[in-house]
Amino acid sequence: MLDRIRNDPDLLFDPKMHGALDFFAYVHPNGATLPSRVTIPTKETLRRERLSYSEAQLCEPEVANDSVISIGPVVWEQPLWYAGPDLAHAAMKGGRPEIVRAWRLRAEGGQLDTLTPLPFRETDLIDPRVDDFFLKLIELRIRETDDQLDDKRRKTGYKVVALSGAYGTAAETNPIDIDPDDEKRKLRAVMVYADKVFKDWVDRPERPGRFNFFATAALITAEARLLLAMAVHDVERRGGAVAYCDTDSVAPVATQHGGFVPSVGGPYVLADGTHAIRALSWEEVEEVWGRFVALNRYDPSAIPGTILKCEDENYSLGPDGKPDYSRREQLYCYAVSEKLYALFTIDEHGEPHVRKYSSLILGQLRSPVIVPRGGDPRAWIVEAWTREIRAALGKPVEPFGWEDYPAMEQLTISTWNVFAPYQAHARPFDFLTVGIISQDRKDIAACPKYCCKKPRPSCFLFDDPSQWRVQEWRCLSCGAAWDFETFPRLRTYGELVQRTLQTIDRKRLNADGSEPSAVMRGVTIPRPVHVKLRTRIGEIIVDPTDSDEDYTAEMLSATDVLAYRSLEEKLDPLRVAVRAAQIKRVARISGVPRSQLQGFVSRKSTPNTATIAKIEAALRSNRFPRCNDAAIERSGEFNLNSLRRWGTDQRHPP
How many other CB atoms sit within 10 Å of the CB of residue 340? Predict the structure, then answer.
């Protein structure tokens, strides 16, 4: 089947083909285009090799939390599991993943004869014996009646039910509520079922939801990626290019009549030697989305035509501020990455006007300016994007007055550990302002004073951001008064705007395959992924790179993923560290016999927990100020904090 798709990608516009993709295969990727969640070292990561180990431990983590989801060539000598739609995507792109074995999902039994029609909201009848529940919800969602308020509520409510029911319940896991600040918390045993089965000890085990079934969840997301890839492929086969993709949307480069647009790294060369890309015409774009009519599974009377739509931002605004669907408008795009972009128009004076923008990362911050009643709390983000676009167009720009304010998030007091330091002056569900500690190399090297292990500067919510310095700031973790002179420096709004809107997309390379520098311009290509090792991770509770922007600081503190490793995998980073620090020297400092260390490094023996603790203590000592070897840092696997907790906890022997 994959060979047929490779030879004729148009087969994917046959709905029957998608019905045959409900399988999983263990494949050698062979450089095929496939999704992966990877950790890509940044320049800051590589600089940390010059820090001492104790300094490096205070920097931002480089493990699974700092990973990105990439879709590009994957190379590894070992096989990996992938869902059928992802393999169809690989075949469509010409890849040849080698299938080792595969299994397909098939339903057994059924309960259709026991089900009865459901009067949803008492007015909308859904019969599960003949209706697809989730398709029916979407069809009912867009129905319009004379009751505008009810139509608005139904559009929102039915969408939430459809998304959470079709995908959310299948992917649901619930972490056991454990106080992360409790140093005496017990590790708990869990069985991990992945490409192999093993036991691990974790401090935040997860329980599957009642309807959890990851196979279904994986197929849903894989199919969504495939549909998006089909749209991109159809643009590219016409000689066109895509500015960016974002979850369920694609932005093809297009003008009213088409033509060539100068672009760094473009595949076409104009008469004057300038590289360019080909812009499709609006008519060609309509042909692309028209091809998806065949995949429309909805009732044609409710949702006719294609499953893609032209967004409102493509149309001019009428006098009432609403889109005028009779007049198309040329949009321009300033894209930093897939999740960071702004779409804008240019007026007769050459001034940009933002029509749509991403508020990723910046949307999690409070406005640094006073928001008038009824005003837009994100107007400052539009101003930031507008300034970046003006600078890119060569226009003069001025710094904002709020750039030196500390970046502040808003926190709701909804748990006891947050409420405790403020119980004398606050009530549950009051709001706090929380600052973000800088973990840059120069700030760590300045050796600031720490009030506790996990300092979190906070104060009561206040109206005027310019008055931040006169507030009573305290550490949310320990309650100590915050000393801005000696405590860790806080990130500023100016820093975060620059880091966000002037960053590079780590998942991409320049068109010629070179590593991007400070700025990426023009055409980019996916970064090839060469797998060195694999880490199995638990469900991600909140991931700001893949989520809406309306998360509070407290919710963002739950973004840590749960990494599962077998005993051998946990010991491998320690073996690398011992080898890097020299066995003879580690033996002398730790008191562990050299022969025992040699056997451990060569995998011939496994020390007990007491011996591991001695080895770790030796590596942690100031006699190894630079034991964070480059290989260890780049692998992102050497985390002595978690290793110590495993190695010295006698209550839970391996």
Answer: 21
Query: Does residue 252 contact residue 288 with C-beta atoms inside 8 Å?
Result: yes
Beta carbons within 10 angstroms of residue 194's beta carbon: 12
Structural element, H or E, at residue 412: strand 408-412
Backbone angles phi, psi at 569, to 5 degrees: -65, -35
Residue pointed to by tokens 């600031």: 448
31 — alpha (psi -120 to 50), left (phi > 0) or beta? left
Report the SS3 class of residue 508. Answer: strand
Secondary structure, 3-state, 298-323: CCCCCCCCCCCCCCHHHEEECCCCCE
Give the residue ranges of DSSP H helices in 177-300: 214-236, 282-290
Query: Is the distance from CB of 56 to CB of 50 less than 8 angstroms?
Result: no
* pTM, full prediction: 0.82
User: Which amino acid, residue 388?
Assistant: E
* Contact between residue 57 and residue 640 where contact means Cβ atoms under 8 Å apart: yes
39: pLDDT confidence band, cut at 50, 70 and 90? confident
Q: Give the pair of three-digit tokens for residue 629.
A: 């070897």
- Read off the pLDDT of residues 40-84 as tens digits, 9 standing for 90 and up: 766 555 454 444 434 444 444 444 456 788 899 999 999 999 999
Other Cβ atoms less than 10 A from the Cβ of 551: the count is 18
Tokens coding 368: 């640094």
Q: Are β-strands 529-530 and 68-75 bridged in parallel, bridged antiparallel, or unpaired? A: parallel
Using an 8 Å Cβ cutoff, are 418 and 432 in contact?
A: yes
> Residue 146 contacts by C-beta under 8 Å, 6 or more apart in sequence?
none
556: nearest Cα among 436, 422, 382: 436
- State how far the Cα of 434 lies from the Cα of 453, in Å rounded to an integer: 17
Element (H, E) at 245: strand 242-245
Amino acid at 347: D
State pLDDT tens for residues 378-424: 999 999 999 999 999 999 999 999 999 999 988 877 766 666 766 66
Paired with 343 in beta bridges are: 333, 356
Show the tokens assigned to 503. 């960053």
Go through the domains of the chain in sequence order and give each one's CATH number.
2-104 (no CATH), 408-491 (no CATH), 565-648 (1.10.260)
Nearest of 624, 571, 617 to residue 592 by alpha carbon: 617
Whats the size of the chain, residue-wise? 654
Other Cβ atoms within 10 Å of 540 Cβ, number: 20
Give the residue-averaged pLDDT of 308-323: 91
Encoded tokens for 417: 């550990």
Task: Enter the tokens of residue 203.
Answer: 């401090």
For range 461-468, the mean pLDDT:
91
Burial class (CB in 10 A: 0-12, 13-18, 19+), 71: buried
Q: What average pLDDT does the structure give for the chain?
A: 84
Which residues are bridge partners to 202 per DSSP?
188
Cα–Cα distance measured from residue 141 to residue 124, given in angstroms and rounded to the nearest whole number: 10
Nearest to 62 by CA among 78, 77, 74, 51: 51
Do residues 133 and 141 make contact, with C-beta atoms less than 8 angstroms apart? no
- Please compute the mean of the pLDDT values over residues 415-442 and round it to a whole number: 77
Residue 156 CA, distance from chain mean position: 24
Angstrom distances, CA of residue 64 to CA of 41, 360, 537, 556, 563: 12, 20, 8, 15, 7
